[in-house]
UniProtKB/TrEMBL annotation:
Subcellular location, record wording: Cytoplasm
Protein name, per record: UvrABC system protein C
UvrC family homology region profile domain location: 262-476
Chief location bin: cytoplasm
Described function: The UvrABC repair system catalyzes the recognition and processing of DNA lesions. UvrC both incises the 5' and 3' sides of the lesion. The N-terminal half is responsible for the 3' incision and the C-terminal half is responsible for the 5' incision.
Summary of subunit composition and partner proteins: Interacts with UvrB in an incision complex.
Keywords associated with the record: Cytoplasm, DNA damage, DNA excision, DNA repair, Excision nuclease, SOS response
Domain GIY-YIG: 15-93
Gene3D superfamilies according to UniProt: 5' to 3' exonuclease, C-terminal subdomain, GIY-YIG endonuclease, UvrC, RNAse H endonuclease domain
Record lineage: Bacteria, Pseudomonadati, Bacteroidota, Flavobacteriia, Flavobacteriales
Amino acid sequence: MDVPALEIQLKTLPNAPGVYQYFDANDTILYVGKAKNLKKRVSSYFTKTHDNGKTRVLVKKIASIKHIVVETETDALLLENNLIKKHMPRYNVMLKDDKSYPWICIKKERFPRVFSTRRVFKDGSEYFGPYTSMKTVSTLLDLIKGLYHLRTCNYHLSQEKIEAGKYKVCLEYHLGNCKGACEGLETEQEYHNNIKAIKEILKGNFKDSLMQFKMQMKQFAEAMQFEEAQKIKEKVEILENYQAKSTIVNPKISNVDVFSIMSDESYGYVNFLQLSYGSIIRSHTLEVKKKLDETDLQLLELAIIEIRQRFNSNSKEIYVPFKVDLGDDVKVTVPKLGDKKHILDLSLRNAKYYRMERFKQDKIVDPDRHANRIMAQMKADLRLSGEPRHIECFDNSNIQGTNPVAACVVFKNGKPSKKDYRHFNIKTVVGPDDFASMEEVVYRRYKRLVEEKQPLPQLIIIDGGKGQLSSALKSLDALNLRGKIAIIGIAKRLEELFYPDDPIPLYLDKKSETLKIIQQLRNEAHRFGIEHHRNKRSKSALNTELETISGIGDKTVVELLKHFKSVKRVANAKLDELEDVVGLSRAEKIYNYYHNK
C-alpha cells in the first residue's frame, strides 16, 4: 500500500525552528508561516478540527510542503516576512499589507544623516537591519544621538555652498545636538570619524563606544554633574544589554548565491540559498544521484550551473565550502569566519536536514533503496571488500558464572532475521571462561554451516575486545575460513572496533548509521542471550526442587504446577491436597520430602 506523499513529508519534518510553505496540486504557493518547532506546528494543521473556515479550505488544498530551517524564532520571523513579500501567497491575508521591518540608514552624503526607514534603495547608502522591533531602533538612534552630535537637516552640504555661507545654524546647534557642519564649524574628517564609530555600534561592536560612554560618565561624576552621569550610565546599561543583530540578515551580503553540499555513497544533496540585501528569499535543495565515483567538487559544479539556470539567477558572487570553477563572470568566495561563514553553515544545515528526511522517506516508500544505501555506507566505513548483506553477531552470557550460554543473531540487508537466530549451550568449557566459550560457539556455528553447505555471512561481529576476537579467529583458522569472512570485535567501553592483526582500533562517528547498526546487532545478541540464560536458570531451579525427588518425573511436575501454580505452594500443600492431584503414593513422597527437610 502506497503512503501518501504529504503524510511522508509530515512524518519527516525536523524538530527545529524555521519557515514552512504550503503548495497546491499546481505547485502554486498557498501559505507561508513560521514555527518554533516545524514538526509540531505543521502537524497541528492536519491533526485537529479548525473553527476557521479559511483554514479548513487551506488544509484541503495542500498538496506539498517545503520548509527552510533557521537557528532562532526571530530568524524565522524575518525570513517569513521576506518570503511573503516576494510570493504574496493567497492565504497570507493578514500579512499582505505594506508593512515592512525597520532599518537604520546611513545616507550616502558628504555629512551623512542617520535615520530609520522601512524602505531600502540602491543609492549607495548603507542599511543596517532589519530589526524586529521599532523600540530597538529608537533605542539605538537615541544612543547614537546622545553620543555623537549628528545633523538632522536635509541640506545639501557641498563645500561650495558652505563656503558661500548659504546656510545658517539652526536650533539644534544652540541646543548642543549638532556641531554646525552647515557653517563649517565641524570638519568632514571629524564627522566621518563619528560615522565610523556608529557603524561599529550597528554591527554589534560596542567596545569602543562603551569606553567613550564610561569616560564621559567618569568626567561628569568628577565634575559633580551627577544627573548627567546617571543619564550616561543608563545608556551604558541599555547598550550592554542590547542583543546583536539577527544572524539571518546582514545588509552587506547583497545579491549573493550560497551553495553547500552533503553527500553519501549514492547521492549528493546541494542546498541553494538566494540572498537579496542580506535576506534569504529562496531556498532549494537538489538531490543528485551519483553515476560513478564523482567527487563533491564535480557534483557541486554541476548542481550550481543547473540551479542558477533553473532559477534564472544572475548574482555575480557565490559562497561555497570549497573552490569551484565557474568561469570569470562569477566571483567565488570560500568563507572562513564571520557572517558569510554563518550563512554557509546555515545552507549546509538545510542540506543535512533534507538528507535525513529523504532517508526517512526512503525507509517508508522504497526500503530497497534504503537498504542499498546502508550497505554501501557500511562497506565504506568498515573498509570491507564487499557489502555486508549477511551479518552475524555473537555474545556470551554467564551471569554469576552459572549456566553459560551464547547467542548468535543474524541481520540481512540491515534488518533482523529472527528465524535465523540461534542459541548455544556451552558444552566443552567448565566455569565462566568467555574466551573459550566464544571459541566453541563460533566453531560449532560455522562447522555446521559448512557441512550443510549453507551460505556464510559477509561479516562476523564479536561482542568483546581483542581477547574474544582472537578466540573467534582460532575457530575460523581451524575451519580454514580465515580471510573468507570479514570479522571484527566491538568493545563496550568506547565502542572501539578491533580488526584481526591490527593493534589500532577503528572509531566511527557516534552518529553514523554504520555504528548504529553494529550497536543494534550487539544489543540484540545480548538481549537474545540473556533471555535464553534466564529460561535455562528457571528450568534449572524447577529441576532442583521437584524433579530431584525420587519417583517424581516430568509429567508429575507439570500436573503439580498446573494445579498449585508454584513450587512454594506445592511445598506448603497438605497431604490430602497432593493426593487429589497425583495419587497417594507420589503425594506421600512429595509431602515427606518437604516436611522432613
